[in-house]
Each structure stands twice: as structure tokens, then as C-alpha cells.
Design a protein that fits this description.
Layout: E1 7-10, H1 11-14, E2 29-32, H2 44-49, H3 59-92, H4 99-124, H5 134-151, H6 166-172, H7 186-215, H8 220-239, H9 241-248, H10 250-269, H11 277-280, H12 284-302, H13 308-338, H14 340-376
Antiparallel strand pairs: 1-2
Helix pairs in contact: 3-13, 4-5, 4-8, 7-10, 7-13, 7-14, 8-12, 9-10, 9-12, 10-12, 10-14, 12-13, 13-14
Length: 377
């Protein structure tokens, strides 16, 4: 067209331009109009032309995948055990406290080390293309070693499956006749389904946000700050989560988490300047801070003594294992085929639609409980 300028550049020359997503393929030369850079950066045509640049099935790739699988086995078991131990310590504490109030310290540690690792990586990396991950691995090794040593200082407690007192034993068995029957009540099933979708959204977020930020031109420090700010937002909500859960209830907290994920992902769809991610992360207070405290508290309150660890393991496995696994894998396929923005929008719609049906489930559950109360009266 007359009066318009079209440019011929390689993708390496476009790396770091905010809003333009590239695949680090210098061989491909694109002709584009500057005004379309921020709009057409996730088109299916670009992804189709460069699909070979996404995954290289090398030995290093498979070894990394194997190490991640082994690592997540350990992480899942350790994280679930830690939550069970924390809840038992809180329950036996002579001072009134809550799970969220104690979990705050883990949040602070997560944020501080994320920021520290990002800064160290930038400091010891000579070029953006050759980023050195050694400081991150060293930091992880030091922190993990300290954690292992501290576990020996934890008090040793044992929970029997049922009390030896006949009267208490009868109270601990659920109305269905078996302690495990509590897992299949409408209340638990509804909450369980919410955990599954939140796990999918979390898997998408954790898998793709560093990738997306790098494509928008973010440096290692900003990627580290992203996790640090999430933790800083999460800290106060964790501290008062017990009070909020008592006021709103577990299901309302779950609904807020689903709505927050929907808003968050739609906002990421429109994100152009990577620094605005720090503002979008305000939604993290509901996406993880309030949600995770609700999930742990729900399992501890609903399960009869002796089955609390089992229910917490099931819910944690649904969130951290099945949910995040499906979310990360699905997000990867969508990201590869259609680009990052389409992936964010798709998962945002999923979260909002789930929130709608979850609200209907809450109303049905509330109506069912009200009818039961009327029948009893």
C-alpha cells in the first residue's frame, strides 16, 4: 500500500522486542508491517512455519525430562507430608494459630530465593543467549541441604487410625459406616473438582509464564521478581487465611480462586509490556494464597481422624500431580500450535466457565443442606 513501510528482518533481530514472540530461529526471514507486530505475534501461520524450532528431541531433552519426573515424585511426597505435619502441629499448638499463618514462612523463603536466583543468574551470565543456570542449582542445593537438616528437629508425632476409646471411636466413623465414605460426599466431590481445574491452571501458569516473559523481552531479574512479587502478595493473605475461610467458607474461597485465574489469564492475553506482570500478579492472592490454605484446611476438617493424611494426599495429588501435569502438557501443545496469547485466553475461558458451573454446584449444595435441615426439624 502507498505510504506504508514493510520491513525484512530475521527473528534474531526481533528477539527482545516487547510484544513480539519469536522462536529463536535466525534462518527464517519475515516480511511484516510494524503496526502488526503486537497483534499478529501468535498467529497460527508463524507457529506452523517454525514448529521444528520448539522441541529438539535430543538426549539432553530426555535426561532433563527424566530428572524432572524423579524430582516431582520427591517434591509431591515431601510437600504433602510437610502439610500434614504442619496441620498436626497447628492442631496441637497451645497457642491459637492457623495453617496459613505458619505457611507464610515458606512463602517468604520461596520469594526470597526466587529473586536471589534470578539476580545471581544475571550477574554470572555474560550474554542473554548464554544464560548461566549454575547459580540457581547451587542455591537450590544449599537450601535443600538446610531443609534436610532442619527436618531432624521436627517433633515426632503419630496419629492412630482410630481412637482406642470406644466412645470416641464411634464418633470418628463417618455416617456411611466407613471413614473413607467421606471422600464421596457431594461436598468433597464439588471441592475436589475445583482443585482439579485450579491444578490445571497452575500447571499452565508455572510451565509457560517464564517462557512467555522471555519472549516479551524480560531479563532474568524480572523473571525472578515475578515469583518474588507473587510471594509478597501471597504472604498477607496466608497470614489471615484462617479468618477469611471462617467468614467465607471453603467453597467461596475456591470460587474466588477460579475467578481470579480467569481474570489473570485474560489479562496475560493482552499483556505487551512484561513489567505489567507485577500488577497482574495481584490475583495470586486468590489463585494460590487463599486457595492452598483452603485446600489443606478442607481436608483436615472434613476427614475423620486417621484418614486426614489420606484425604490431604488425594487432594494434593490432584492439584500438584494430575492437575498440573495435564495443565502443563495441554498448555505446551496449545502454545506450540497457536502461540502464547491463545493459550492464555483458552485457559482463562476454562477457568471462568468452571467458576460458573462451580457456583451452580454451590447453590445446589446449599439447597440440599437446607432441605436436610428442614427434614430433620
Amino acid at each position: 500500500m502507498v505510504g506504508e513501510t514493510w520491513l525484512n528482518v530475521t527473528r534474531d533481530e526481533l528477539n527482545g522486542v516487547p510484544g513480539f514472540i519469536t522462536n529463536n530461529s535466525a534462518e527464517v526471514v519475515d516480511t511484516f508491517h510494524p503496526s502488526l507486530v503486537l497483534i499478529e505475534n501468535t498467529s497460527k501461520e508463524i507457529s506452523a512455519r517454525n514448529d521444528k524450532a520448539y522441541v529438539r528431541w535430543t538426549l539432553q531433552f530426555w535426561l532433563t525430562g527424566l530428572l524432572l519426573v524423579i524430582g516431582w515424585f520427591g517434591y509431591g511426597a515431601a510437600n504433602t507430608s510437610l502439610d500434614v505435619i504442619a496441620l498436626h502441629i497447628v492442631d496441637a499448638s497451645p497457642v491459637r494459630t492457623s495453617y496459613g499463618g505458619n505457611r507464610v514462612f515458606g512463602t517468604v523463603g520461596f520469594g526470597v530465593f526466587a529473586l536471589l536466583a534470578g539476580q545471581l543468574m544475571d550477574t554470572f551470565s555474560h550474554t542473554a543467549e548464554g544464560r548461566d543456570f549454575t547459580p540457581a542449582f547451587v542455591t537450590f542445593f544449599v537450601a535443600s541441604s538446610g531443609t534436610v537438616l532442619l527436618t531432624f528437629l521436627l517433633p515426632k508425632t503419630h496419629e492412630t487410625s482410630l481412637s482406642s476409646d470406644p466412645e470416641k471411636k464411634e464418633e470418628q466413623v463417618s455416617p456411611g459406616g466407613s471413614p473413607l465414605s467421606v471422600f464421596f460426599t457431594p461436598d468433597v466431590i464439588l471441592f475436589w473438582s475445583g482443585i482439579f481445574v485450579v491444578g490445571i491452571c497452575t500447571g499452565m501458569l508455572r510451565s509457560c509464564i517464564p517462557w512467555f516473559l522471555a519472549e516479551l523481552g524480560a531479563n532474568g531479574l524480572l523473571v525472578g521478581m515475578n515469583f518474588f512479587i507473587q510471594c509478597m502478595y501471597e504472604t498477607p493473605i496466608m497470614a489471615v487465611s484462617g479468618w477469611i475461610i471462617r467468614k467465607l467458607g471453603f467453597h467461596t474461597c475456591m470460587l474466588l480462586a477460579l475467578l481470579a485465574f480467569g481474570v489473570r489469564f485474560v489479562a496475560l492475553y493482552f499483556l505487551l509490556d512484561p513489567w505489567y506482570i507485577l500488577l497482574i500478579n495481584l490475583t495470586h492472592v486468590f489463585c494460590f494464597g487463599l486457595f492452598y490454605a483452603s485446600m489443606m484446611g478442607f481436608a483436615f476438617e472434613k476427614a475423620p481422624p486417621g484418614t486426614r493424611g489420606t484425604l490431604q494426599g488425594i487432594l494434593s495429588g490432584t492439584f500438584s500431580g494430575v492437575g498440573q501435569g495435564i495443565g502443563g502438557l495441554t498448555a505446551g501443545f496449545i502454545y506450540q500450535a497457536y502461540g502464547g496469547r491463545t493459550a492464555w485466553l483458552s485457559f482463562g475461558i476454562l477457568a471462568l466457565v468452571t467458576a460458573f458451573f462451580y457456583c451452580i454446584g454451590m447453590l445446589a449444595l446449599w439447597r440440599r443442606e437446607r432441605n436436610v435441615k428442614v427434614t430433620v426439624l
